[in-house]
Amino acid sequence: MGAVKSKRVPRAVREQQMMDAAVLTFARRGYRAASMDEIAEVAGVSKPLVYLYLNSKDELFSAVIRRESEALVAAVTAAVEPGAPADRQLWSGLKGFFAHTTENPDGWAVLHQQARTQGEPFAREVAAMRAEIMTFVTALIGAAAKEAGCDGELADREVSALAHALVGAAESLAEWVNTGTDEGTSGERERPAPRDTAATLMNFAWAGLGRLIGGGRWSPEG
Amino acid sequence: MGAVKSKRVPRAVREQQMMDAAVLTFARRGYRAASMDEIAEVAGVSKPLVYLYLNSKDELFSAVIRRESEALVAAVTAAVEPGAPADRQLWSGLKGFFAHTTENPDGWAVLHQQARTQGEPFAREVAAMRAEIMTFVTALIGAAAKEAGCDGELADREVSALAHALVGAAESLAEWVNTGTDEGTSGERERPAPRDTAATLMNFAWAGLGRLIGGGRWSPEG
Amino acid sequence: MGAVKSKRVPRAVREQQMMDAAVLTFARRGYRAASMDEIAEVAGVSKPLVYLYLNSKDELFSAVIRRESEALVAAVTAAVEPGAPADRQLWSGLKGFFAHTTENPDGWAVLHQQARTQGEPFAREVAAMRAEIMTFVTALIGAAAKEAGCDGELADREVSALAHALVGAAESLAEWVNTGTDEGTSGERERPAPRDTAATLMNFAWAGLGRLIGGGRWSPEG
Amino acid sequence: MGAVKSKRVPRAVREQQMMDAAVLTFARRGYRAASMDEIAEVAGVSKPLVYLYLNSKDELFSAVIRRESEALVAAVTAAVEPGAPADRQLWSGLKGFFAHTTENPDGWAVLHQQARTQGEPFAREVAAMRAEIMTFVTALIGAAAKEAGCDGELADREVSALAHALVGAAESLAEWVNTGTDEGTSGERERPAPRDTAATLMNFAWAGLGRLIGGGRWSPEG
DNA sequence: CATGAATGAGGTTTCATTCAT
DNA sequence: TATGAATGAAACCTCATTCAT
What we know:
Four copies of one chain form a homotetramer. Chain A is mainly alpha-helical. Chain A folds into two domains: 10-55, Homeodomain-like (Arc Repressor Mutant, subunit A); 68-214, Orthogonal Bundle (Tetracycline Repressor, domain 2), CATH 1.10.357. In chain A, 70% of the residues lie in helices and 0% in strands. Chains in contact: A-B, C-D. The interface between A and B is large, with 49 and 50 residues. Chain B binds a DNA duplex through residues 7-11, 14, 35-37, 45-49, 51-52, 56-57.
């Protein structure tokens, strides 16, 4: 088992192989249950080499979190058109997000399921990345409000809450869409295209936000 | 550390003490990192007693998941008014959800962060509970559509997606609202009341759904 | 599971019930693997009661060894006719031995398989019983030699060796005839009668010993 | 206690050292009472290394049983002269058996006392080895009968019984001869030579069998 | 007479990590 | 660059045994 043995590989390449193996193993087993033995075997190298390059399980996990976080942020960032209106930026960002998580489910699982649940310092690292995205989304919502001319009517706190709701909705959909009949040989439920998932979420969110921004309010007394 | 020592307690009581300790410890450390030693110490009993009553770490975790799942579903169920219109049911359900997760953050953390990431069979148990809630929300969205007279215009798959988005948004808000300056003795950021969180989410969601149901659609080409 | 609950039983009776349960459990599981929990459950009493009457696992095991040893020696002793010729005494003793081990296989298993393999002090207790039998057999062989008029031609050491060989042969046969298709519902191999097993061994042994000693052929009818 | 520390030993060598330590410890304490801690200490290595190489206590015990069984069968097999008459084959086989068990008393104790009393699957492994020897002995008895021209007069079942008696006698003698004043520094009772033990048993057995079969007297000098 | 409640001690097993080559 | 050999520490779990009622 494990990758094909190939000797004398440059360090940078070997490190990536190890991190690929780590992503796979952490996603499958969880941080604690994943053993360095298994990671080394999946990577096709000996355990001491993993330690030589990545120093410790903690540092390996941190490195994985960093790499996957940066890849996700890069994918989303690359997808948005900087100068476009807020709604278009959100739309393209969501497309990028769903595309990346669909193509890279193990990396997403490590970030979303594992890193966040392992306490400090890992939770902080992924929280920082999430905060970055949250800031971006918060800014977009603020910008949209401004574009609609309702500047100041939404408290900062409320805008933050909306951003959290929106990001949470996206995460939930990403998990729903990419989870499921993995091993089902027959009847493999086809996953919706990232574009369709993004459209569904935009419809849900934007119509709501549009109303909010435009004045229509639901009320508990209603 | 550890609860006050109280000797010779009836089994049923001790079991609840142990499960309380387990919820606390699993929430703090995660399933794998929580040791039976620590759980026993927090419960104020010896380790063998934990095994005598709860049999194994796996069974203890399962018992915790079951207890917390049922408590959450009961809280939400008790909050909704069965005969009311869909929007009112959703509103009261969300209030119940945020109230319960705010009062019981450790239980929620075990369900949402730990159980879902520990693979089979734990993930399945929470998934079943989540599916129950998802079914309820899905039915409410369908009912709302029917009340608005747009029966059939939303595909089942799309209604499911909207339910997943809504539940994900609620989960994200629950985490956001209840997380944070736990240890900060001073400057304790005040948590919003469950009612306000529910209202924010209802505004976000319902205005959006209202638009959708009423016909207004955001479009990527727009 | 376990015996029917019957309260307020006199101590002597309860002790026998417990020892019966212990024999069964020690035979099934071995000394170390048998737990006091299981013994108490099989006996139909609570664990503290076992300790109240039998004091400890070691003492319980010792008591079992003593009881079963005495029962075996008593069975063999009761079978032999004290004044008869040596060959008849051996023949009747073997019949008694095979009859007792066939009727009481668990007790025999505890003595032969468990007690002898658990080191001190248990091995010594059963060794003492075995030595008693060995002394008896040695005396019989000596007596037979004297009866045949070849007194002194066999060294004491050789007579002892012959006794060990004979007893070992008997033990091997006892295990062979009583072991086997326990659970086989169909095709239950019928066990030979103790009398036939004894006859086979007597023919094997006595013809050999008779030749060695110089005497005539032994026969069960003789 | 513990062997001399020798670091960085090849795996094959270490495995044999561990199995030697295991034989010693299982023989002294019994399977259950022997702890992996003690085995590792006797072997002069740390416990994890024992697990790394032998996987578990069960597998270690099985490996020991296999090694000692094969050694015993090999010793007996190597001792017999294949083409010789039945009595000579039995004689040389017994010499080989007593020589091996005398030289290797711990291995014999593990096979005869421990493995057979630990239930499945260990009992089965040693039972298979014993059955192999029993088959060999049974064949020899049958061959001797044929050589003496009394083919068919002994029922198969009776021949089997005789083989069991003979093997049991040998086992009993092996235990008697090799047991005893182990720790007695002074007055160490001298053990009889394997050759003498074999001669005693042959005289006991063959004279008996010879009479039964109708043939002449067996003699080690013959 | 009898038991539900409770534990100290010790068992097997795993794992992150290092050393010597 | 790369690895076979080795271990300290700690995890889960069991069991003989006792106390208080």
